[in-house]
Design goal:
Layout lengths: L10 H17 L10 H21 L3 H27 L7 H25 L1
């Protein structure tokens, strides 16, 4: 197993970074009327995922690290809801690779959380 030196070494952070790029591409096709609404909210939620992972990794205590990882999971749930709303409002239908990327990021992040919780106990 590779040694984790910085947040950039974390697979969860890498997946989150890729998700940001995917969301930015997706939101380019939302209506202009949503630029300051759903588009902005989705981009902010996406950016907060790798950002919270990075901030948590930089913290000096395990409880704080876990708190930031859980916030990242909250942003994943927020983004999932926003994607469902895009579909409900008939703005766009999220492609399967986008939804798969979101689920994969959540799966990897949850695995990291479980691993750190095991160390804590």
């Amino acid at each position: 197993m590779a040694t984790i030196k910085t947040h950039r070494d974390l697979i969860a952070w890498q997946k989150g970074r890729q998700l940001v790029k995917t969301i930015y591409q997706f939101t380019r096709f939302l209506p202009a009327s949503e630029q300051f609404g759903l588009t902005n909210q989705m981009r902010r939620a996406a950016v907060s995922i790798p950002s919270n992972i990075a901030e948590g990794c930089a913290r000096q205590s395990l409880p704080e690290y876990l708190r930031f990882l859980r916030m990242a999971r909250g942003s994943i749930a927020e983004l999932d809801t926003q994607l469902v709303l895009c579909e409900d409002l008939e703005f766009a239908t999220p492609e399967s690779h986008l939804l798969g990327g979101l689920a994969e990021t959540d799966r990897v992040l949850q695995g990291l959380i479980r691993s750190l919780e095991a160390k804590q106990n």
